[in-house]
Amino acid sequence: MAFDQLKKIAELKKLQDSLKKERVVIERDGVVVEMNGNFEIESIKLNPELTVEKQQDVLRRCLNEAREDIQKKMAKIMMSSGFSF
Question: Between β-strands 31-36 and 41-45, what pairing exists: parallel, antiparallel or unpaired?
C-alpha cells in the first residue's frame, strides 16, 4: 500500500510539472495578459490609448478569462492523464 501511495505522489508531481508549463495569452482591446499554469501572471501589456477606467475593465476581463482558460486546461490534462485521487 505504501508503494501505491508513493506512485501516486510521483504521478502528482509529474502532473504538477506539466501544468506549470501551461500558458495562456489573452488579448482584448490591445491589453494583453499572459498567465502560467500556477495562476501566476507572467506579463501584462496595457493599451495607453484607452482611458484608465477602460484599461481597468479590460484588464479585469482578461485576467478572469485567463484564469478560466487555465482551469479548463488543467481539467483536460487531469482527465486525459487518468489521474485519480
Answer: antiparallel
pLDDT score of 29: 97
Strands, sheet with 41-45, edge to edge from the N-terminal-most edge strand: 23-28, 31-36, 41-45
Residue 5, pLDDT > 70, answer yes
Helix axes 52-81, 2-20, angle to 10 degrees: 140
| 26, 53, 85 from 59: Cα distances, Å | 10, 10, 35
Q: Say if residues 78 and 61 touch (Cβ distance below 8 Å).
A: no
| pTM (two decimals) | 0.76
DSSP, collapsed to helix, strand or coil, labels residue 32 as strand
Q: Is 52 helix (H, G, I), strand (E, B) or coil?
A: helix
CATH code, domain carrying 50: 3.30.1310.10
Which structural domain, as residue segments, surrounds residue 54?
2-81
